Amino acid sequence: MPEIRAIVTDIEGTTSSISFVKDVLFPYARKRLPAFVETHADRPELQHWLHEAAKEAGYIEASRQEVIELLLRWIAEDRKSTALKALQGMIWQEGYEAGDYRAHVYPEVPARLRAWRAEGLRLYVYSSGSVPAQQLFFGYSEAGDLTPLFAGYFDTETGPKREQASYEKIAAAIGEQPAHILFLSDIVEELDAAQAAGYRTGWLLRPPQALPAQPRHPAYTDFDAVTP
Ligand SMILES: CSCCC(=O)C(=O)COP(=O)(O)O
Ligand SMILES: [Mg+2]
């Protein structure tokens, strides 16, 4: 078995609870999005992502209010839109900086990440959340600033998480053969795509989920059980 030299991890459901994202972050963005768009309408970055969202929806011409309503629908649907994720990240920044919340990480995760770093493994994040949102997430985690542990971050600007090509691009970007990379996720379709690209895979099934008798990927209840 080729040695593992790098680990790429998902966030929601893997390092951190689904509940924190769905019950804290998403409602925060939903509540503040209309006022945020109005208040920051002159920011070029905001204008860019509003335009990208409208384009993704196939709108030829749309008012600001129509795009706001579109984005609120997408939050409710948990749509993994790159534009929505970029805008959510901009809103979440205010919440992190105001101390309204800190990002959840499962209790064993920080020490296990540190142990893997001490063993010489390079650590990366691949999440549907935008790269700035990922950096905020680990920068303002319940366990403090975990960003020094990570060598890089990838989001859906690299490609969708259920497509093999995205994992091929990440392997090329980090300069490692896929066989030497372990991808950790809670979503089996993401693991299938990483495996098709030649990665080793680890399926996080956090309690109360049960480990299947014959899982499609090596399955673990937590990071301490993962043996790269
Ligand atoms: C980066 S924090 C917010 C996470 C998020 O918006 C999301 O959709 C989570 O997706 P993941 O790919 O980490 O399961
Ligand atoms: Mg996930």
Automatic annotation (TrEMBL):
Domain of life where this protein originates: Bacteria
Lineage: Bacteria, Pseudomonadati, Pseudomonadota, Gammaproteobacteria, Lysobacterales
Record's protein name: Enolase-phosphatase E1
Cofactor(s) this protein requires: Mg(2+)
Alphabetical UniProt keywords: Amino-acid biosynthesis, Hydrolase, Magnesium, Metal-binding, Methionine biosynthesis
Catalytic activity: 5-methylsulfanyl-2,3-dioxopentyl phosphate + H2O = 1,2-dihydroxy-5-(methylsulfanyl)pent-1-en-3-one + phosphate
GO terms for MF: acireductone synthase activity
Function: Bifunctional enzyme that catalyzes the enolization of 2,3-diketo-5-methylthiopentyl-1-phosphate (DK-MTP-1-P) into the intermediate 2-hydroxy-3-keto-5-methylthiopentenyl-1-phosphate (HK-MTPenyl-1-P), which is then dephosphorylated to form the acireductone 1,2-dihydroxy-3-keto-5-methylthiopentene (DHK-MTPene).
